[in-house]
Amino acid sequence: MDASSQFQDTLPISSDALLAQLQGWGLDYMLHEHVPLRTVEDAKSVEDAMEVPGEAAFRVKNLYLRDKKKRNYLVTLEQDREIDLKALGAQLGVGGLSFGSPDRLMQTLGVRPGAVTPLAMINGAQNNVRFLIDAAVKGADRIYMHPLVNDRTVAMDVADLWGFFDRVGVSAEVLEVS
Fold first, then answer.
1. How far apart, in whole angstroms, are the C-alpha atoms of residue 138 and residue 141?
2. pTM of the model
């Protein structure tokens, strides 16, 4: 199964249900539909269609990680940011950071590879996933991210993203990455 909306009904929370919940909470977003995107390079191929002149956009890549004690992390970074997992582990005071398996990704965040997103914390909060976001988000007006599937992107005001975190009980940690 791929990570597109065609298979959203096999997720713990469908993309449609998430979008309805965002609306119900009064969190504004703009929905963009496109071909399935699995990589930053794929995402860059469709970004021009979503560009808003003068907007400070935060376009992301997301890493689902586990440490040697089997604790789970979702790390959201500016899409072109390079990251050294060993250095990140040292910064967080944890050892052995590595990428989590697709099965654990589904168990903890309720998404498939290619659709990892801060919005998956709607599932991750109850599964003790620690969420970290690049400090570059502080300079942005809007964040662009998948709504649990990889053939859709939502553009949301950063303030509304923080409102989402409040609603789902997530304490987002701002990560200073050098």
1. 8
2. 0.95
